[in-house]
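Obj.: predict assembly geometry.
Materials: sequence records (below).
Method: joint structure prediction, all chains together.
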Amino acid sequence: MEKNGRKIKVIIIIFNILLSIGILYFSYNEYNNYKNYKVNVKSITFDLNKIDEENNTLKQNVDTKKEELDKYNDIDKLINDEKNNVFKLASEVEQKIRNHESNKKIVYLTFDDGPYYNTYNVLKILKDNKVKATFFTTNVNGEYCFDDSSHNCHEVYKEIAKAHHTIANHTYTHGWNKGLYSSASSFIDAVLKQEELIKNYTGITTNIVRFPGGSSTAGSRKSAIIEELKKHNYGWVDWTAEDGDGGYLATYNQGWNKLVNSVTDNIEVVLLHDYHPITTQILPDFIKYLEDKNYVILPLFYESVMINK
Amino acid sequence: MKKNKIINLLLLFSIIILISSGCIYFYFKNNNLNKDIKDKENSLITKKNENESLKKESEELDKKIEDIKNNKKEELEELEVWKKMEEKLK
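Observations (raw structure tokens):
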């Protein structure tokens, strides 16, 4: 009995020892697993944070690019918005110049009596020099170019509009000596007819008029014509500087001297004609001259102080 | 003698119970950690997929922008001209 009792005791002790070893081993394993899991959790959390950060940056980039793409998709609107910004700012600057609060200088290059076939050359010069101008157009030369009858000059309207220059109205007939100024209604009829032509070719509605020969040519009818223009929401403008190409211009120097000597104020409206070969020669040098003199070259716009309303 | 044996046995059982408790504690803790790791791994996979698609979208947008820049070169140059005009007036 005593022997059996001892045996049982030994078995119990061995069992306990084995159980303890087993439990210890299991515990050790679990502890090791715990340590590994901890390391894994830390590493995955680090990866998660890193990829989260990267994703956030990517999302921002994608959003910025989408905005950029939207802008480019509507590039015409973007250009028009920018044009409006320029005109708004120019209007403010003009007021400041008039009030002697700014030393900025603005010049408006205007081309009368076109379009001509030579207008293409003028447009190229303006494009090469990144300059915008104003074209006072008339139909006096008819559909085909006066200076090259093998070309349809009405197509030039589209090129002027495409290049975002200002298209303005110089009347359909330009007949200053053929009854244009005989009455206010004859003048406004010629303006509205030219308006229709411009709209047909470009889709643009103009709101600036120049009297053929200048406003003084209208003589006693001037104020009645101006009233009619007001009724139709047109502004009008003469000029303050010129190279004389509307009259007899024989040489480059003659045109250059007249031009440079007439540009003296801080806001100038320069009269040129897009058919004249000497004007075409002078133009690139004149643009450089104006830029050297710190003039900002702009196309005319209705709100400009130079537009009489 | 008998009292000593009982004390020893009690001590032995206490140690076993203590170690067992630790073992059970780590076992459950590990279960939770394991679940946490699996969740995080799934989330990592999702985010990696999202990352890939964002990168792809970004590349596609770059390409579209590049195409537009090439196709609308003249318009962009035009925009630049007006921007420069604005700068000069400021």
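Conclusions so far: Residues 167 and 191 of chain A are 13 Å apart (CA to CA).
To do: check interface contacts against the pulldown list.
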